[in-house]
Amino acid sequence: MGTAFMNSNIEKLFSIEEAAKILRVSGRSVTRYIESGKLKASKIGVWRIKESNLNAFLEETSNVKSKKK
C-alpha cells in the first residue's frame, strides 16, 4: 500500500506554448528568451518554465518598457 502525499511547495511549470500565451508572443520568441538567458527554464525532455521565473521575466520586461517612456 503506497502513501500519497501532497507538497504545496511544488511550483507550476509552463510549456513554451503556455508561456507564449501569457507573454503574448510566439513560441519561437519564448525559446529565444530562454536561449539568450533572459528567461530561466529547465529542459526536462522539453523546456519548462517555473511560474516564478515567468513572473520575474514579466516584471523585468515591464520595467524596461516603462523606463523607455
Question: How would you portray this structure in words?
Answer:
- This is Helix-turn-helix domain-containing protein.
- By secondary structure, this protein is an alpha+beta fold.
- It has one domain.
- The chain is built from three helices and three strands.
- Helix 1 crosses helix 2.
- The protein starts with 12 loop residues before the first strand and ends with a helix.
Distinctive features:
single chain; 69 residues; alpha+beta; three-stranded antiparallel beta sheet; 3 helices; 52% helix
Total number of helical segments? 3
Q: How many domain units? A: 1
Compute the average pLDDT: 88
Task: Trace the largest sheet across and list its strands.
Answer: 1-3-2
Number of separate strands:
3
User: Sheet bearing the most strands, described?
Assistant: 3 strands, antiparallel
> What is the molecular shape?
globular
- Beta-strand percentage? 5-15%
Spell the H/E element sequence: EHHEEH
Fraction of residues in helix = 40-55%
Radius of gyration: 15 Å
Low-confidence stretches: none
SS-derived structural category: alpha+beta
Distance between the termini: 61 Å
Pfam families: HTH_17
GO molecular function, one term: DNA binding
Protein name: Helix-turn-helix domain-containing protein
InterPro entries: DNA-bd_dom_put_sf, HTH_17, SinI_DNA-bd
